[in-house]
Give the backbone structure.
Amino acid sequence: MKEYLLLFRGGDGATVQQSPEKWQEHMQQWMQWMGKLTEQGKFIGAQPLETTGKQITGNKKVVTDGPFMEGKEFIGGYLMCKADTYDEAIEIAKGCPILQFDDGKIEVRELKSVHP
């Protein structure tokens, strides 16, 4: 099995955040999705990301505040999973609750093996 990184963008669901009940329901969907992956032995790990950060640039290693981008481009979190093929990883991503929102996006990337 190969390992894949799913990067979550957008999909903040302003409508979900309007009530604690809707937010709780949405979070429950995330837990069910990740629980299913765990049962299948495909879940490696996942974390949301803070909205603040630092950026280090170039050979002078200039540190600036960041990231600065539009909300829909902001990476809000990630999940690592196992899948036999890219297509399977894409199918896993299609089950993610972030895609309930028009601005929800998932970037699926295969992790490069560092072992010969």
In short: The radius of gyration is 16 Å. The CA atoms of residues 57 and 69 lie 16 Å apart.
